[in-house]
Predict the 3D structure of the following.
Amino acid sequence: MKKTRALLPLGEFEMLVLLAILQAGDGAYGSAILEQVHQRGGRSVARGALYVTLERLDAKGYVASRTEAGPPVRGGRPRRYYTVRPTGLALLRRSLEALGRMREGLELGLKHS
Amino acid sequence: MKKTRALLPLGEFEMLVLLAILQAGDGAYGSAILEQVHQRGGRSVARGALYVTLERLDAKGYVASRTEAGPPVRGGRPRRYYTVRPTGLALLRRSLEALGRMREGLELGLKHS
DNA sequence: TCTCAATGCATACATTGTTGGCATGAAGAA
DNA sequence: TTCTTCATGCCAACAATGTATGCATTGAGA
């Protein structure tokens, strides 16, 4: 984490990234997160886009990261793993709940939740 | 509608506004929409923020608007009513579905949908 | 050695998000 | 009638988020 900025609502992509980190669980490093966004989010973004967002989420204290030695296949070279911090999780919940309330009673015929 | 720009993913606030219009139904004019965002979205934004967003959604063809005579209490002065167009609805669905898939399997303990 | 693949990060620019204040016109008070 | 107050809508400006390209590093394997 770099500094502690405002407590503004999460952007759309920020939500996706936060959720992707949660989905990736322990192995949440760049490519894995990107993969989640691609698969579930059904959207392909450039790696750079992800890293910039991760950096910003980090700066706001919503995620934490540790640089750990990678798997042997990778020659043990380090990777940067991310985790969602309580603040980030809380904010994510708030955003999702707002959307949920916003949707209440509407018949949108979504294919998923 | 002004012009037809890109087909990028909807921003967070844009989703809220689109949903708010749907919630407001027939009476979807500025203040009514704002009220929905405030109540359900649990967030207070300046009127200007809403109008700018509506304008942009309009420019992208996601919403349509008609200026109609307002109620007698208002001396019949006109109001601008908005409706969500098919394109906007489709995009909204896509965004919500992506979030839905992104959430699948996660135990977030949300208070609502 | 040389090349390739996997990562992460920096740069730059486009799009969104947000606020504050201006303007108009009817209603109601003075 | 004149003044003040709402209710609306909109514009200018600026902050934050979204996104693509491309550079740099470092083992693996040819």
